[in-house]
Amino acid sequence: MRLVQLLxxxxxxxxxxxxxxxxxxxxxxxxxxxxxxxLDPEPSFHPGRGQYCSTELLARMQRxxxxxxxxxLGVTALDLYIPILTFVFGEAQMNGGCAVVSSHRLRQExxxxxxDPDVLAERVLKESVHELGHTLGLTHCEDYNCxxxxxxSVEWIDLKGISLCAECRARIDNCQLTLANL
Amino acid sequence: MNGKGNLLIVDDETIVRDSLSKWFRxxxxxxxxAESAPEALTLLAQRHWDLALVDxxxxxxxxxxxxxxxxxxxxxxxxxxxTGYASVETAVAALKNGAYDYVTKPFDPDDIAHTVHNALxxxxxxxxxxxxxxxxxxxxxxxxxxxxxxxxxxxxxxIETVGPTEATVLITGESGTGKELVARxxxxxxxxxxxxxxxxxxxxxxxxxLESELFGYEKGxxxxxxxxxxxxxxxxxxxxxxxxxxxxxxxxxQTDLLRVLQEREITxxxxxxxxxxxxxxxxxxxxxxxxxxxEGRFRPDLxxxxxxxxxxxxxxxxxxEDVPLLADHFMRKFAPAxxxxxxxxxxxxxxxLQRYDWPGNVRELENAVERALVVAREPELREEDFTLKLPxxxxxxxxxxxxxxxxxxxxxxxxGGNQSRAAAILDIDxxxxxxxxxxxxxxxxxxxxx
Lengths: 182, 450
Known about the structure:
Structural class of chain A: alpha/beta
Number of domains of chain B: 4
Shape of chain A: globular
Oligomer: heterodimer
CATH topology of chain A: Collagenase (Catalytic Domain)
CATH architecture of the largest domain in chain B: 3-Layer(aba) Sandwich
Shape of chain B: elongated
Number of helices of chain B: 19
Distance between the termini of chain A: 9 Å
Number of strands of chain A: 8
Distance between the termini of chain B: 68 Å
Structural class of chain B: alpha/beta
Number of strands of chain B: 16
Strand order of the largest sheet of chain A: 2-1-5-8-7
Radius of gyration of chain A: 15 Å
CATH class of the largest domain in chain B: Alpha Beta
Helix content of chain A: 25-40%
CATH class of chain A: Alpha Beta
CATH architecture of chain A: 3-Layer(aba) Sandwich
Largest sheet of chain A: 5 strands, mixed
Strand content of chain A: 15-25%
């Protein structure tokens, strides 16, 4: 069975990660486990921006990825960016083995609202499926219910579901990358 | 447009090119990147791009100058300027030069996604608007194809039969019989009706001008070619090309045209990239192409390509029963524009119109009715409103040959016997006129007329 490993980047609540792993596993017909050691994010910190470069984090994750691991998903509470954008919710290696998601801007309190752990968990899960979808070669989907729908704000993330639509699943099948035999 | 669109990113910083390219690919766009203005211009010449994101500050040619050059090559390209430090000056300079928008780095993901998406959607809507206008024009005009005579019914039946097919059609008939209207009707009856109908009057253009009109040209192909221009075969993508006065094109252009019809691809003047084209060809002529072939002035292989199906339009004098319908149609067409309540053609005027030979065919009738409406008094068009001259009783033509002989001799008389001038007025070449005069025994006849 395929193995998806969740890698904490910086301080992330282990129990929270375990609950997320349990919900993520069926979406990819994979076994999902949380790695005990966290990745140190500091080498990827940009002092001028006060943010962490997701592309650099992915490069470092790639170097320490276990060959037995099908997909390595980094999870962090830190604010991520790529050089040309003000922020990203996550980033993935297109057709690659690693992806990273950040809960920083998915928190209600980031927008001046009262904390809501359930909403946060739902958003992180959707973004995790979204980024892992990119690692399977999928581009953004026009179906707003699909987890691969473009979502550059939390409102759009809240609108979509946690699963891939039938068409995206078919696109994976067409690439000979059926979820069952990956 | 491939998928969501083809984007070209121009920035001298590798990290910007890489991260932006990757991000837009995930969005579903086809993306390429260039690190300098020369590389961007090379990429632009190689293939079609919908939108370019251009950094304003680059070594050598800056973004504003590059934008100007990109638009010289492809005026339809959408350019969005990227700037590190927004200032009113740079924004004004960019927009004045024709940039669609300018954006400040780093971008908010939602903002840049919407800017690019909206620019492409706006551009697409503009092109669709133009296409729809052309379609509406093409669909409405064929209503002018008026006639209930047996000859006209055969033409309308032919349009109905061949219109919906892909067959290449050659329309023949004298000048003014309505060949372009038939071409428009064929287009309107075809599955290509929602795409453009491009009309090219071959006789009105010189050889080189016709070549660049048909095939387009690359920037710098010749003096004055400041911009890349699409040819009519490209513009007609998915639609119909109507080549009017096909008998007037040079042998060289005939060869080029034959190749396009066979290969379904063109190469722009000054270019070397073959471009696939999808069009249906309808052509027309008032000349006898078989005679031109005999004279070595028209390629027989092109003739057979063009003449897959032929529609011959009868001259108006051979369908006189349609004259009342046509006169009534033109009266209703022009009277409202002249603010006149003219509601009928008097019986005497109609008799005159039906007896007249109409050498200029329907076009001449249309002009005659329009001119008569100018001087007419409400409520009807009278005989005296028309300035038509019927032939003297002794010279009244009974056969087509008689009519041709009399018409040629009258024109020749007006030209004082100068055959070159007469041939120009008759729109035939001098050799043809000479042969016809020989056939009609010109010297004796001219003496009679004069």
